[in-house]
Amino acid sequence: MTIYDQHMHTLYSFDSEAQLRDYLTQTKAPVVTTEHLEFDNPDDGGRDNLPDYARMKATQPALAEKFPTEFLLGIEAGYFAPADARFRQYLDNHDFDLTLLSFHHDGHYDYLDEQLITMPAKQQLE
C-alpha cells in the first residue's frame, strides 16, 4: 500500500507560499494539493478565502509537461453551518479530484485561537 500526503497547500491558499513544482520534484507518487476554501474566515478579518481555481487549472497542463508525477486538484473546505449554501454552490461549480472537509472556525473564532484554547470545554460548546 502506498501512503501519500493529501493535505498540502500552495500559493493558491491564503496561508501558503509553496510552489507546486516544489512538491512535484519530491516524489513520483501522485500529488494532490488541498487548497483552503474558507468563508467568513476569522483568521483573515472575516474575509472569504477562495483559491484561484482558474489559475490552478491553467497551471496543470504546463506542470504535466515537465513532471511525470500525476497531479490532482483538491480543496480543503473549512466548513461551518452558516455558510453551507455557499460551500455547496462553490463545490458544485468547481471540479476537484478530492474534497477534504475540515472544521477550523465558527465564523467568529478560529478553534486554535488562544482565548478559545484556554476556555473550559463546556463553555466552548455553548
Short description:
By secondary structure, the chain is an alpha/beta fold. The protein has helices at residues 20-24, 53-66, 84-92, 114-117, 121-125, and strands at 31-41, 47-49, 71-78, 98-102.
Based on the model shown, name its key terms.
5 helices; 126 residues; Pol/histidinol_Pase-like; Histidinol-phosphatase; alpha/beta; 4 strands
Spatial sequence of strands, sheet with the most strands: 2-1-3-4
Strand count, sense and barrel status of the largest sheet are: 4 strands, mixed
Structural class: alpha/beta
Helix content: 25-40%
Total helical elements:
5
Which regions are unreliable across 5 or more consecutive residues at pLDDT < 50? none
Total strand segments: 4
Helix/strand order: HEEHEHEHH
Radius of gyration: 16 Å
Question: How would you portray this structure in words?
Answer:
By secondary structure, this protein is an alpha/beta fold. It has one domain (32-125). It is built from 5 helices and 4 strands; from the N terminus they run αββαβαβαα. A 4-stranded mixed β-sheet has the order 2-1-3-4. The radius of gyration is 16 Å and the shape is globular. It starts with 19 loop residues before the first helix and ends with a helix. The mean pLDDT is 83.
